[in-house]
């Protein structure tokens, strides 16, 4: 069992989060239910901020694509973090949450003209330009609006981290960024300097997600600082900022061995310092973008057990009232999770079962072959580490309403995302007049 933040087993033998019995949460707010441990979320923000600030000028920005809603964006602001956004919708969320827009970094490989205009009008602090087309487009829009914009360029450094193929981004063959090994990155810097309406502040890279090996971060940082030296030697420019992205791994399943944020800070910050000394470069401000590592461990999803089926000699299936609609990651790339029965958290394991979702897909399986106490209809299944890329990637497949999300802290639970209704499901449907009879 892997408990984080305020999670514990209480005197009833039930899982407790934020001082509230998970069984009571399920009863009050119904299931499926996303639960966010506020104290755990805040502690994760602080751990990264403290780890990097110990080495000098740095900024931790929360990658809101992992989990974005008004309440959590506001908490990230209160904890002194910046914000990583990747769409007009995420910009709008930041704006409505009252987040300081000068601390917002706008990413994306195909930002629309409308999104770029929105970023400029709302005062986004950095636009991370991803390609030559966007560089030209943004410069043109800025000239039309008479506004100069601070930018960074996203660089593809050619570093392959050991992670799932779908979440690797630093390798040469990637849809993201200006490729470094073939000279495209240097040409991108030259072009940016020729754009009179753009102010190049620094460079960004991101080598992937769910990374446990700090050597990957050290290597990527070294490659980027080597390139900073090239930029200085070739173009006479010393850049002010270096954004090393995110990708810090968390615990989902046995075998996952996450490091301490201090290890990441040491790997990145010491490499920057060593390379700056080697090349006689000024120390850039270092930026990192943890998302999953902040929101993931702070989240739990609660489900109610329903039907069960046994294929004799092969497998026992038990079904829950959610599935790939609220957590597509197992179906998308084989993600594995740890879970317990929240109402039998202190009971010994009795059987091996596989947790099926309720969607009309054979692939809607949340967990294969997990050992649990005897599973009965009405039991509450708690799946750990679901704070990242669950709500963010959820859908209405099979016209299932999305669950509610509650924030728990010191014995109090507050709804921060309402449960969808069937009316919400059809809200944008339009029935043509000729079909109305």
TrEMBL record:
Q: Which gene encodes it?
A: lysA
From the Swiss-Prot or TrEMBL record, give the protein name. Answer: Diaminopimelate decarboxylase
- Look up the record and name the cofactor or cofactors this protein needs: pyridoxal 5'-phosphate
**Which reactions is this enzyme annotated as catalysing?**
meso-2,6-diaminopimelate + H(+) = L-lysine + CO2
User: Quick one: which residues bind substrate?
Assistant: 292, 329, 333, 361, 389
Orn/DAP/Arg decarboxylase 2 N-terminal domain boundaries = 43-295
Active site per the UniProt annotation: 360
Among InterPro entries, the record links this protein to: Ala_racemase/Decarboxylase_C, DAP_deCOOHase_LysA, De-COase2_CS, De-COase2_N, De-COase2_pyr-phos_BS, Orn/DAP/Arg_de-COase, PLP-binding_barrel
Q: What is one process in the GO biological process aspect for this record?
A: lysine biosynthetic process via diaminopimelate
Kindly state the subunit structure of this protein.
Answer: Homodimer.
Instruction: Give the EC number.
Output: 4.1.1.20
What pathway is this protein a component of? Answer: Amino-acid biosynthesis; L-lysine biosynthesis via DAP pathway; L-lysine from DL-2,6-diaminopimelate: step 1/1
PROSITE patterns given in the database record: ODR_DC_2_1 (PS00878), ODR_DC_2_2 (PS00879)
Function, as annotated, reads: Specifically catalyzes the decarboxylation of meso-diaminopimelate (meso-DAP) to L-lysine.
Q: Which Pfam families match?
A: Orn_Arg_deC_N
Record keywords, A-Z: Amino-acid biosynthesis, Decarboxylase, Lyase, Lysine biosynthesis, Pyridoxal phosphate
The modified positions for N6-(pyridoxal phosphate)lysine read 65
Q: Source organism lineage?
A: Bacteria, Bacillati, Bacillota, Clostridia, Eubacteriales
Per the record, the similarity remark reads:
Belongs to the Orn/Lys/Arg decarboxylase class-II family. LysA subfamily.
Residues given in the record as pyridoxal 5'-phosphate binding sites: 247, 289-292, 389
**GO terms of molecular function:** diaminopimelate decarboxylase activity; pyridoxal phosphate binding
Organism whose genome encodes this protein: Thermosyntropha lipolytica DSM 11003
